[in-house]
Amino acid sequence: FHWPALWHAGEVSDTTLTVRVRLQPCSCSYVQVVIDVPDTRREDMQLDVSDDFLDFETPRWKLGLPLSHPVDSKKGKAKWDSKKSQLSVTLRMKREYDFMNF
Known about the structure:
- This protein has a five-stranded antiparallel β-sheet, with no helix packed on it. Strands 3-2-8-7-6 form a five-stranded antiparallel β-sheet, with no helix packed on it.
- The chain has strands spanning about 1-5, 5-10, 10-15, 15-25, 30-35, 45-50, 55, 60-65, 75-80, 85-90.
- The chain starts with a strand and ends in a 10-residue tail after the last strand.
- By secondary structure, it is mostly beta strands.
């Protein structure tokens, strides 16, 4: 989805930040959040993930994203693509019956 309004350096900005959330095909075990972050360096990013919320911040951008599925916040991974100015965060979903092997 496209985030329509965003806090920009403490102010509401007309500038938009593109955020995409999708379930990984086939397994539905992972959720992936892709954030396009123009004009940003990896060193300036701060990412915090809890079981139901993703908090992302740079000096220029702030994003608080409630997650639609509970995730295991300790087993996620984030990857920065500097050429695309894109951060991809992959999180394993917590599902009630994951401990059972069908």
